[in-house]
Structure to design on (71 residues):
């Protein structure tokens, strides 16, 4: 059903020492056409509700994602 997918991570650090992260973007790339709403709902749950890493990071770090398809 899901087929193949890839996740690329892009992060931006603050200019100040110790250079902590200020923004992290996860770029999800899927190779099967899947309903985008279903993917967004699934990623939202995984990232914002069940991810202990995200919950442990500072609230100052903005975390978002993108979805694209390569068929």
């Amino acid at each position: 059903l899901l087929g193949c997918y890839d996740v690329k991570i892009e992060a931006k650090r603050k200019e100040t020492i110790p250079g902590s992260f200020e923004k992290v973007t996860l770029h999800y790339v899927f190779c099967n056409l899947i309903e985008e709403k279903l993917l967004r709902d699934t990623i939202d749950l995984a990232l914002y509700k069940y991810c202990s890493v995200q919950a442990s990071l500072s609230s100052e770090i903005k975390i978002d994602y993108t979805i694209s398809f390569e068929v």
